[in-house]
Amino acid sequence: MTGPAAGSRTLLTLAAVAVAFAAADTYVVVLALPDMMTTVGLGVDELQRAAPIVSGFLLGYVAVLPLVGRIADLRGRVPVLVGSLVVFALGSLVTALAFDLPSVVTGRFLQGVGGGGLVPATLALVADLYPPHRRAVPLGVVSAVQEVGSVLGPLYGALVLAVADWEAIFWLNLAVALVLAAALRTVRRRPTDARAVDAHGADRGRAAGSSTGSEGTASSDHGGRAAGSSTGSEGTASSDHGGRAASASGEHGGQAASASERVETPAPEVEPVETPAPTRRAFPDVLSALLLLVGTASAVLLLAEPQTLVTDVELGLAFVPLTGESRWLTPLALAALACLVLLVVRSLTARRPLLDLRGWAASLRQADPLGSALLAVVLACVILTFASADPAVSTFSPAGPWLLAAAAVAAVVLVLHLRRARHPLVPRGAMARRPAWGSLLVSFFVGAALIAALVDIPVYARLTTYRDSQLDAALVLVRLLVAIPVGAILGGYAARRVPVALVTAVGMLASAAGFVVMSQWGARTLENPLVTLPLLLTGLGFGLALAPVNAALLDATPASAHGLVSALAVVARMVGMLVGISVLSAVGLRRYYATLTPGDELAAALNQTETIFLGAAGCAVVAAVLALVLLRAVGTSAHRVVAVS
Q1: What are the residue ranges of helices labelled H in 42-135?
Q2: Burial class, 243, CB count within 10 angstroms (exposed 0-12 / middle 13-18 / buried 19+)
Q3: Neighbours of 639 (CB within 10 A)
Q4: pLDDT tens digits, residue range 580-599?
Q5: Among 313, 294, 128, residue whose Cα is nearest residue 222
Q6: What is the pLDDT of residues 130-151, one digit of tens each?
Q7: Neighbours of 395 (CB within 10 A)
Q8: What is the pTM of this model?
């Protein structure tokens, strides 16, 4: 099977760049946080009150990710990519214009939703464009690009903050996100790409199809509409995207069956989502465009409050609240709200709306909104339990026990719902194979180990050699981060010849070895140039594990659920990071206080980092063992090509 067309490669490149850009934004905020706190009226000693700025992003990134991934399966990868970039741009706009803590948190939440939606859609797009035996390398490239974004994020933030205020970061985010969204739409509309872009095409149909004897059916679901049927000695394989269809005779039923061997459970049937067929129109919906323009301008003026307008005798009345003191009760705010309501009504009733809300609503209904809400409650409770915890006091936040109890109840209700729902969020059988759910467990422990490196290596550097330089301490971590993308690409190539379980295990054992060496670091170890070697080894090990785990997950699940399962992989790693940093930090602090002696705080601090690094090594070893046990059924790319050719 040949690779994707040039236009599809361009599409994937744009999606990967968007993922890297969103990853960079995650680390930019760490540097900008003190200035953001000052803007919203928080002092530098009120860091705990500023926690929602970070946890709000995580909440948006993780909690709604499975819903976004499922919509990507139903509506297509490119629409979700474009939509995610638009939401990310909107969040950047709100954050740049924020005037208080709630507005900043709202903007960061929207950025999290948009940035998180890019990852599963891009991973699923790789699965759509590449057959299983060629999938590991592009998955490695996407993972590498994402990690490059993480490396460049702090440098990008430092550069912007050196010449401008923190708001400039989010204005740049807004511009870049809109440019990428426009580029994705342009590439998608090229006729030469119609067969490869976000339709998944006949390849998805063959992967989901089945045949018996001389009869066969093969179907592909995209945009909610696909069907194939056969009677007698004839079969039809169809894929509905832009009206294209392909036919295949029943004697090729064996091919359809062999193509589906890599997925033991058939792709679940999905009720058609009626979305309007794309049509050419000379002019956009002028009324909708006008409402959008007026509403956006009103909101921007409301948030920015230009002094020349606010102090004007007549124009300033638009900024005076009709009652109370909230600016959301001003005539300008009410005008923006009215435009929003009218835009929604217009989009739902117009024949050719500017915003296809009817189509998105149909996809949302098919994506199991109740199941998505229940899962969001579970994830939100877990995030808030650990993200707002003070490790010096407890592993959990003060409300942690209650939040975990609520998460447990919501999880039970979710399981019952998934068993009874007609179209569950997680399609029945999608996660039945051991490598499928095993990949999520491995991702959890990979995240738990990785977060220890991201947080505690800079902490160790500030405690010892670089006490007065935050930048130099961050550059110590960069030595590890630069090795991750290299390892991700190498892991993709290795998975083509070596079983993914072995590649993942070797990578995580290498990271464990690096952590063990770090646990022996003393007060002056960073002065030795050889200290770079364990950092590179640890980063290389993490990189080696990224692509094989994603490849195993995609290979063990039906094509019609690739967006969802990719989202679940990201969620598993993020939750692992949250739980890992809370537990490891709490254990490390206990070691600190247990060994603390007056006048020798540094020795106690080194004992703390030693404990955390050893705990991270343990998590990495657990990930390696789980990979060997749970992913061994996937095999190598060479074996997978036999099953699909």
Answers
A1: 51-63, 65-75, 77-96, 101-129
A2: exposed
A3: 13
A4: 888 888 888 888 888 888 87
A5: 128
A6: 888 788 888 888 888 887 787 7
A7: 18
A8: 0.75
